[in-house]
Each structure stands twice: as C-alpha cells, then as structure tokens.
Design a protein that fits this description.
By secondary structure, this protein is mainly alpha-helical. The protein is about 70% helix and about 5% strand.
C-alpha cells in the first residue's frame, strides 16, 4: 500500500497536470451543469442562494474547485489546514452531488416554486453528469490523499 501511495502521489510533469486539469474540468462542468439545472434553477432552491447573499452557491460550484487537485502540493511543515479544509469541502460536495445525480431518477425540472409547471430533462445526460462527478471526486480523493500521505512521510 505504501508503494501505491508513492506512485500516485509522485510529482508529474506540468503537461500531464494540464491535461488532467482539462479532462477534470470537462467532466466537472458537465456534472455541475446537471446539478445546476436540476437542483438550483428548479423550484425554490434559487431563493436559498439569493437569501444567503450567494454563499450557498459555493456548494453548487464546489465540483469545479476540485479540478485544481493536480496542482495542489502539501508541504512538510505541517501548515496544511486550509488546504485540507479546501480538499475536504470540495471533495465531499463533489461526491455528494455525484451520488444524488446517480440515485435520483426523477427527470422533472420545475420552473416555479409551486411545483406545478415543469419540463422533462434527459436521464442519460443526468447519469453522465453523475458519472463525471464521481470520476472527478474519486480522482481528487485518491490523488490528494496520496500527496498528503507522501508529505506526512517527509515530516517523520
């Protein structure tokens, strides 16, 4: 297991980081668009964003923040609290949205707060968004935890 973390968390050249960034960005944008379409623009959820002055919008846009995971480095000095909080925040919300998109089979997109008028969405596109977010979340989970594990070995 130690060799696996060393291989995954090792430093890679910049061109591989950029390629993985763009692949993660495409998957995260597809998934985030489905999340916004089904859960933010649908019904009364948009009022939560307005009434909290946009703070709840961070929850909806968290999967895009995980695209920078190839560029995150953990130092051996132990001052990684902000990075750990950031990784935990965006990683947990990315996996949460992925599970919600994959489990929820309802394709109704409501256009008002009362739930009367709606239009039907596209279930395969919703599943594709959920799978994309799942890939992004698992990539972030594995790569960031391996980098953290490698930096912890340097502390000892």
């Amino acid at each position: 297991m130690k060799n696996f973390a060393t291989r995954i968390g090792q430093e890679v050249p910049l061109k591989y980081k950029v390629i993985s960034f763009f692949c993660l960005a495409v998957l995260a944008i597809i998934g985030t668009w489905q999340v916004l379409q089904y859960y933010l623009f649908s019904g009364a959820y948009f009022w939560f964003v307005l009434l909290t002055a946009g703070l709840v919008l961070l929850v909806y846009l968290a999967p895009i923040g995980l695209c920078v995971s190839p560029f995150i480095k953990f130092n051996s000095n132990g001052k990684n609290r902000l990075r750990k909080f950031y990784c935990n925040f965006v990683g947990s919300y990315t996996l949460m949205w992925a599970i919600i998109l994959l489990v929820d089979k309802n394709i109704k997109i409501y256009s008002d707060e009362s739930g009367i008028s709606y239009r039907n969405g596209n279930l395969p596109l919703k599943m594709l968004g959920g799978i994309g977010l799942l890939i992004v979340g698992l990539y972030g989970l594995v790569s960031i935890s391996a980098k953290y594990s490698n930096s912890y070995q340097k502390i000892k």
